[in-house]
Inverse folding.
């Protein structure tokens, strides 16, 4: 019995030195390679991912922040795309505007498009004030957040309507 | 009795070995440049997610520190606050150029942040692509202001539909 325990101790516990030393030398791959191995294996096994974005019920702060980003990206892409297209196309702006006017688009479609153009600008501008206030360190209390949030949404629709109907 | 003493000795020796090898493992991985087998050229197309050297963490490859960049972004935003209503009341080539420059810079930095947040880790070359695209777009805007009707006039004409 004692011999058994001694031989166990000799073989298992004292041999650990070797295996640990081996592990040290084997780590020559980069973090990038290891992550790649992880993702390749999991994609091949088709394992389900744990819920990460849609597990939360959308609340006001999250939706407004998302809309701020989405309107910003949409406007940036629109301005960049429009100016690159204007560079590439042969005629000048008046010519293309006449082309669009000659299509005789129905008034409600024109109003819809004007809203589509005006609302992102007004929403992004008014929400930008909230963002600047947060950067200055003010207005983080939850009640203030919700109050300013609802005010910003309402104001953005009012200002967009002013653009569409008064100009 | 002797066996238990020996087992205990093995345990302490084992834990000491564990501790020593943990130290060894940390130092060996840290000093080896474990950036994989990719050369400097392929690094453009391979998103680097670490480990990062202390110089890189202090912003070695960048023109200015991140906090200064943030400050410049906010100064531009505060400058844009009076600019947008001014375009409603005063139309002139100066306002055209001011709005084009401000919107271009703001949009460029904003999209930069969005791309860094979501897309750069999957597609590492989007940032240079976005830079090239937005420079072409700015050229188009300047051309529009110079050779064509100009931004304020264009919006007026569009809105009169």
């Amino acid at each position: 019995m004692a011999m058994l325990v001694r031989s166990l101790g000799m073989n298992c516990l004292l041999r650990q030195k070797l295996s640990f030393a081996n592990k040290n030398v084997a780590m020559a791959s980069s973090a990038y390679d290891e992550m790649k191995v992880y993702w390749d294996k999991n994609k091949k096994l088709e394992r389900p991912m744990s819920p990460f974005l849609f597990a939360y019920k959308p609340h006001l702060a999250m939706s407004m922040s998302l809309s701020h980003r989405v309107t910003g990206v949409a406007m940036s892409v629109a301005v960049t795309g429009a100016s690159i297209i204007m560079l590439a196309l042969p005629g000048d702006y008046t010519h293309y505007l006449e082309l669009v006017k000659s299509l005789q688009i129905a008034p409600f479609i024109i109003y819809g498009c004007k809203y589509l153009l005006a609302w992102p600008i007004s929403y992004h501008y008014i929400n930008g004030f909230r963002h600047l206030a947060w950067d200055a360190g003010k207005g983080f209390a939850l009640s203030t957040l919700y109050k300013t949030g609802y005010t910003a949404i309402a104001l953005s629709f009012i200002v967009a309507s002013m653009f569409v109907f008064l100009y | 009795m002797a066996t238990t003493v020996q087992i205990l000795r093995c345990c302490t020796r084992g834990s000491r070995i564990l501790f020593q090898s943990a130290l060894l493992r940390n130092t060996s991985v840290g000093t080896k440049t474990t950036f994989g087998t990719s050369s400097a050229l392929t690094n453009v197309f391979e998103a680097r997610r670490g480990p990062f050297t202390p110089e890189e963490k202090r912003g070695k490859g960048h023109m200015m520190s991140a906090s200064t960049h943030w400050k410049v972004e906010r100064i531009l935003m505060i400058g844009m606050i009076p600019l947008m209503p001014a375009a409603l009341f005063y139309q002139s080539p100066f306002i055209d150029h001011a709005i084009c420059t401000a919107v271009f810079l703001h949009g460029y930095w904003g999209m930069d942040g969005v791309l860094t947040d979501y897309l750069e880790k999957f597609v590492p070359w989007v940032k240079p692509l976005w830079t090239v695209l937005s420079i072409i777009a700015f050229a188009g805007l300047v051309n529009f202001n110079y050779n064509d009707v100009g931004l304020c006039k264009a919006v007026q004409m569009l809105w009169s539909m």
Notes: The first helix of chain A runs from residue 2 to 13.
